[in-house]
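Subject: STAS domain-containing protein

B.,
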Amino acid sequence: MSWAPSGGLPVVDATTPAVLVLAGPAGRHEAAGLCDEVRGLLAATGAGLVVCDVGGLGPPGLGAVDLLARLELAARRAGGRIRLRDPDPALHALLALVGLRFETERQPEQGEPPLGVEEAVEAGDPPV
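Prediction pasted inline below.
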């Protein structure tokens, strides 16, 4: 038995969103190009989500907040959204301070081991 793909919509893996890496202190002059890139990634993948890796963005400030707000606005206008990967805790606090809420990738909470790490139990430990 054979099967040929139909001429319909392309097959898109919606579980793997596109990643946009933001490195270095990004200023207002770079925002337009990055917004175009977000719109292009949303159109190319069809996933409706772009992950912005902000780990290398540098020290958090209002410039970073402005850039992220512009990227989110561009994504919303294109029918998608952005998710932050590896945000600095200070950036997360600054975004909350100015009233912007961004979806972030799952990070271990304080005191919670990262995924894939299990705590060892000794044979002589009493049950809790």
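The longest strand covers residues 49-56.

T.
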